[in-house]
Amino acid sequence: MQPLLSLQDISYAYHNLKGETPALSHISMDIFPGEFLAIVGPSGCGKSTLLSVIAGLLAPESGSIYCRGELLPPQTPCRSVKIGYMLQRDHLFEWRSIYRNVILGLELNHTLTRENTAYVLQLLKDYDLYAFKDKKPSELSGGMRQRAALIRTMAVRPDLFLLDEPFSALDFQTRLNVSADIANIIRSTDKTAVLITHDLSEAITLADRVLVLSKRPAGIKCEMPIRFPVGRLDPLEIRNTSEYQRYFNHLWEVLTGDESIT
Amino acid sequence: MTNPSPDYPDKKSTSAVSDSQRLFLKAHRRHHHLVALARGCLIVLFLGVWEAAARCGLIDVFFFSSPGGIVTCLGRMIADRSFFAHTGITLLEVIASFALVTLLGLSAASILWYIRGLSEVLEPYLVVLNALPKSALAPLLIVWLGTGTNTIIVAGISVAVFGSVISLHTGFCQADPEMLKLIYTLGGSRRDAFFKVILPSSIPLILSNMKVNIGLALVGVIIGEFLAARRGLGYLIIYGSQVFQLNMVITSIIILCAIAMAFYQLIQRLEHRYRKKN
To answer: Looking at chain A, which runs of residues are DSSP E strands?
Structure first.
């Protein structure tokens, strides 16, 4: 299967007057259409930097990016794969209603057509936010706000979702529900997703494949497909399976150990 | 799919007011009434002591005036219409200065944010111009622009504009970088980041900046009128002090206080409306 996006030998470093801080070191990875890929790694290892490179917000210092098999020229964002990015916090604008927040991407892309507006209204209905469309973000709970942020990302019909720890600001209970909701929504629409997380349980319960990054500068330490014999279960049910325990222990070993397993 | 979470505020439950809440509201209202009463008593006491001291000969009304003398002076100014002429021109100059300071301050701060590096180039010049005592510029303005309304408006602008640019630009630069990142991830440009994030998130800052500007524009206009006017409240203050008409000086100062208060209240209402809307 041809990857949607392919990164070959990508390196990136931050520069300031005190010197340079390498963030990514020779990273090669593929993102396949329809998969849910989770990337885990120690805090501050460069996970968000990797996502920014994939999103085209940062240009890598070396290496190549292939977009649907075509090499991207340096400093050029990928045009053939539309990217939707979810940040750590929902960043809903308090001065806009929920409806005006979720159409932000359409406004920015000048695609606020009747068809797209109807699509957004349908998403609001599907995800139980239609009754709140004229409310301000502060009137919604944390979980509802995160769903609104997802609709804002979905409104621009992305091919690839980049999820930068979007559940980290939520309390534990809301986090379990919202992460399951969002994963189900993305799976049900056959979209591709890359989830950055420092939570191994989240990675195992949501993803089809987990990449473990080493400490900074991030390199790929381990790649692990996640398969459950009974098929994909509810994230809460997955936590009770023996496979979950096995995956968790193995990933924990890799994350905390020094050896590189690929 | 999760149901709406229980932490969503239920408006129906807040409509019933408990006894303790009613008591709290009553105490709150009582406190506000007491503060208003104390304020009123303070001004009445001050005016009463002043008037009594003047009538008993404890202070010389030639130097210190008296509330009665001020009311008489105000009545005479209204009767001969000089009140309207002088107050009108000062008001016009203050409004023009304030509007131009707000417009220029906002435009310059926006350009400084938009063009990366420009603020670094201009920063030392802005700091020096802001720190410079603007009354030192007045003789230059008179030479360049002559005496009249234009000079006074420019004096009003010069007092407030540099501080306004610095404070607005600093506020713009403190916008949450993650919000700007959101705009870029959704395909927006720097222009979009400005109009969708920087400007709307800075409305409280712009309103508080306007509050400062109105006071400074008033200061600038009065300085200008001291030096280069034949009309206006600043001119009346200087003229009154030169001919020892202290009633005229203090009446003009009181009118200035009323103008400052009126402008402040106007912006306060704008701020209140904005807060209510959001």
So the answer is: 5-16, 19-31, 36-40, 62-67, 70-71, 83-86, 160-164, 192-197, 209-213, 220-225
Order of strands, sheet of A5-16, starting from the edge strand that comes earlier in the sequence: A19-31, A5-16, A62-67, A70-71
Percent of chain B with pLDDT over 70: 94
**Burial tier of A247 (Cβ tally within 10 Å: 0-12, 13-18, 19+):** buried
Residue of chain A whose alpha carbon sits nearest to that of B177:
A91
Which residue from B5, B181, B183 is facing A108, i.e. has the nearest CB? B183
Count the alpha carbons within 13 Å of A178 in the hemisphere toward its beta carbon.
26
Q: Where are the domains of chain A?
A: 90-158
ipTM: 0.84
Report the alpha-carbon distance of residue B192 to residue A75 in Å, rounded.
21
Q: Which two tokens stand for residue B182?
A: 């959101």
Q: Ranked by mean pLDDT, which of A42-46, A197-201, A227-231, B156-160 comes out on top?
A: B156-160
Question: Domain B70-277 belongs to what topology?
Answer: MetI-like fold (1.10.3720)
Q: How many angstroms away from the CA of A194 is the closest CA of chain B?
A: 15
Rg (CA), chain B: 25
Q: Test B196 with A93 for CB contact under 8 angstroms.
A: yes
Contact A144 B185 (CB under 8 A): no
Distance from CA of B276 to the nearest CA of A (A): 11
Q: What is the pLDDT of residues A222-255, one digit of tens each?
A: 899 998 876 666 777 788 888 889 999 999 988 8
Chain B residues within 8 A (CB-CB) of chain A?
A: 1-9, 176, 178-179, 181-188, 192, 196-197, 200-201, 203, 278
Average pLDDT over residues A159-179: 83
Q: Which residues of B touch A109 (CB under 8 A)?
A: 186-187
Which residue type does B128 have? Answer: V
| Domains of chain B by residue range | 20-59, 70-277
Q: Report the predicted TM-score, pTM, of the whole model to 2 decimal places.
A: 0.81
Residue A171 CB burial class (10 angstroms; 0-12, 13-18, ≥19): exposed
- Judge: A91–B176 Cβ closer than 8 Å, yes or no: yes
